[in-house]
Amino acid sequence: MDPLLTIALMFLPVLAVQFRAFRLWDELVEAIWTDDRARWEALGRPIGFFWRPEEPKMGVLEGILPRHRLQMQVLGGLPDWAPEQGQIPLKMMGWRLTSILSVGGVALIGLFVLVWTSLR
Known about the structure:
Number of domains: 1
Strand content: under 5%
Mean pLDDT: 91
Number of helices: 4
Distance between the termini: 15 Å
Radius of gyration: 18 Å
Largest sheet: none
Low-confidence stretches: none
Oligomer: single chain
């Protein structure tokens, strides 16, 4: 089998996991927006990857930086402001897990490519 095809096939599950991470993030931000609009405003009005609120109308660029700040908070664990039970902490944990798995998958594929090229 062609090594390039093997690498491409290895990326399919990683892409599926990353897509799930995107969807979990969208669900998380939408849940914050729905449950605690004041908190969403205080966080800088972050957006999802595919989701953004219809009201107020906002552009993509103004929600990206708050999204990155919120992602850094969530990667560090459960933020102080987050409830300890309910769907928000579950979505945070799911997003963290899927993000770490997808990064790990890309790292493993990169390691595979390095080993494969060094053995040639």
